[in-house]
Amino acid sequence: MTYDKAADVIRMEVTPGTPLLHPLPGQYYFLYQPFRLSGWESHPFTIGAWSYETGDDSSLTPTSTTRFIESIDFSHVPLLAGGSPHSDYQRHLTRDSTEEEHSLKLRFIFWVRPYDGWTRALREQCLLSPNPISETTVLLEGPYGDTFPLWKYESVLIIVGGTGIASAVPYIQDHLRRSDQNWEENPKNEKTQVRDIHLVWTTRQAAFIHEVSSRELKPALERDDFSASFYATRDTTACSEDLSDFGYEVQEGRPHLQSLIMSRACDASSAGCSLAILVCGPHGMADEARAATHLAMRQGHRSIKFVEESFMW
Asked: Fewer CB near the terminus (10 Å): N or C of the chain?
């Protein structure tokens, strides 16, 4: 765990006890920290990103995950009990026990905003550590949640607030995986139909934008089929210089979602393509985005799919 005071966010890098998990966008886990005096507490968090490590090498890039999945045959492991609207996406895998399989280490990334109770205790644990990193043991329960087939839409607009970026990054990385040549060469994989993705992210601290943009979002920021609009409700100078290399800047305040959605809907209709709008943020943001989408559909822009991810469990 690492607490970034400027961003006011704890970055948790969790290594599960088994590499056989197959993480997907839209999934979340309940996290338990055992042996606490306050008792047995569980807290749900969306997976913000994941990586696979081999020996001393590690990478969060999509291609490393793609090659991992293609090079190893897992045993049949059901990911979720029962059916789901998108259960066709969660395929069972087959296993071939090899030395490479056992040498791989799966790592989950969670972003935790410290408030009260357990999350505040995690922050204090980080601050009391003699070095920037604090280690602890947590138990994972899951995965839960459904994966929406965002890759089937030609245009994608993602609107998130704060730590809601955790729901966006896996879908963005999934697009990069499906665009990779290694993925397309496998006939079992469904190629992406997405032509462009636009991310609209509003958060309190600009430092949080810098943290994620310099790591998990960096591969996407370098692509022509991805664009982003960053907004910070507090200091915006913390990361503007770092993002200038990608041609981005952090704007002050909040975006006008109705204008953004109407513009995107008009562009999609003019191009004759489908549009998916994924939203994950506070209730006010979700309500505004939903109302704007409804207005766009009433004005004749029908090829729109609105998807809302849970922000407060």
From this structure: C
Instruction: Give the residue extent of every domain in the chain.
Output: 2-144, 150-308
What values do phi and psi take at 247, rounded to 5? 80, 25
Give the model's pLDDT for residue 39: 56
C-alpha distance from residue 146 to each of 82, 109, 209, 212 (Å):
12, 18, 26, 24
What six digits make up the tokens of 141?
A: 């329960």
Q: pLDDT digit string (tens) for 71-123?
A: 333 333 333 333 333 433 344 333 444 444 456 789 999 999 998 888 898 99
The sheet that has 139-144: what strands, in order across it? 42-46, 28-32, 139-144
**Residue 76: closest CA among 25, 22, 146:** 22
d(C-alpha 176, C-alpha 39), whole Å: 41
> Going by DSSP bridges, is the β-strand pair 275-280/304-308 parallel, antiparallel, or unpaired?
parallel
CATH fit for domain 150-308, picks 3.40.50.80, 3.40.50.1100, 3.20.20.60, 2.60.40.2550: 3.40.50.80
| Cα–Cα distance, 183 to 21 (Å, whole number) | 19
HSE-CB for 200 with a 13 A CA cutoff: 23
Q: In the structure encoding, which two tokens stand for residue 286, read together? A: 């979700």
The region, left, alpha or beta by phi > 0 then psi within -120 to 50, assigned to residue 154 is alpha
pLDDT digits (tens, 9 = 90+) for 21-43: 889 999 999 998 887 655 556 78
Nearest to 227 by CA among 174, 180, 158, 286: 158
DSSP state of 190: P
Half-sphere exposure for 53 (CA within 13 Å, toward CB):
13
Q: For residue 155, list its beta bridge partners.
A: 196, 275
- In sequence order, the β-bridge partners of residue 156 are 197, 276
Nearest to 136 by CA among 33, 4, 29: 33
